[in-house]
Amino acid sequence: MTWTTFHRRGEVLRTVIDAVDARHDGRLPTDLPGVTETFGTEQALLAALLLRWHTRLSGHLERAFMTQPADPDRAVVDAWHAAADELPGIRAVLDHYPAEPADEPMATALATSAAKEHVLLGAMAGRHGATPAAAEAAGRALAERARTTYVPGVAAA
Fold first, then answer.
1. Dihedrals φ, ψ of 109, to 5°?
2. Burial per residue of 112-142, b for 16 or more beta-carbon CB atoms within 10 angstroms, e otherwise
3. What angle do CA 108, 109, 110 make, to 5 degrees?
4. Are 43 and 102 in contact (CB under 8 A)?
5. What stretch of H or E contains 121?
6. Could you give the 3-state DSSP secondary structure of residue 130?
7. Secondary element (H or E) of residue 133
8. Which residues contact residue 53 at a Cβ distance below 8 angstroms, ignoring those fewer than 6 apart?
9. Mapping DSSP to helix (H, G, I), strand (E, B) and coil, where does residue 91 land?
10. How many other C-beta atoms lie within 10 A of the C-beta of residue 45?
11. Contact in structure between 51 and 113 (CB atoms under 8 Å)
């Protein structure tokens, strides 16, 4: 990837994020100029949005745990809420497509991504257990708690 291509990709991705934030319908905005030429497929665009989400979530998790919280589960949920507040359109896309994937490879990629996020959430809360499956189950429960308690714009201080 050339420097020019890298910057163009970043510009188009910012336009996509602005669009999903404004539309908030959970759909990938493949109708925007440059999206198809830059990303090629819906799955490639979704992968870029997943990377942005995971990067932001990881940053919030790291900040939450820098202060040695007394309630690690709450820290994980608060970090998820803060990331969702910063990336509401991306969160809407990530909530929409697991139920309506464009194809089987997209469904597989989303399931894999969710499982890895759940392992991260479970491990960060100290619920790693003896196996990755135990961490994933704990993380899935924390992600569900975050989703059901989320109120847009009211992230923890």
1. -60, -40
2. ebbeebbbbbbbbbebbeeebeebbbbbbbb
3. 90
4. yes
5. helix 104-124
6. coil
7. helix 132-149
8. 83, 87, 90, 91, 94
9. helix
10. 22
11. no
Could you give the CA distance from residue 153 to residue 157 in angstroms, rounded to a whole number? 11
Extract the residue ranges of the chain whose pLDDT is less than 70. 1, 154-157
Contact between 67 and 60 (Cβ < 8 Å): no
Which structure tokens are listed for 45?
Answer: 């665009």
Output the six-digit token pair for 124.
Answer: 């960060």
Structure tokens at 88: 């509401």
Q: Compute the 3-state secondary structure of the chain and give helix, strand, coil in percent, each to the nearest 5.
A: 75, 0, 25
Write out the two tokens for 146.
């975050």
CA 142 to chain centre: 14
Residue 99 one-letter amino acid:
A
Where do we find the tokens 């940053």? 59
Both structure tokens of 135: 């961490």
93: left (phi over 0), alpha (psi -120 to 50) or beta: alpha
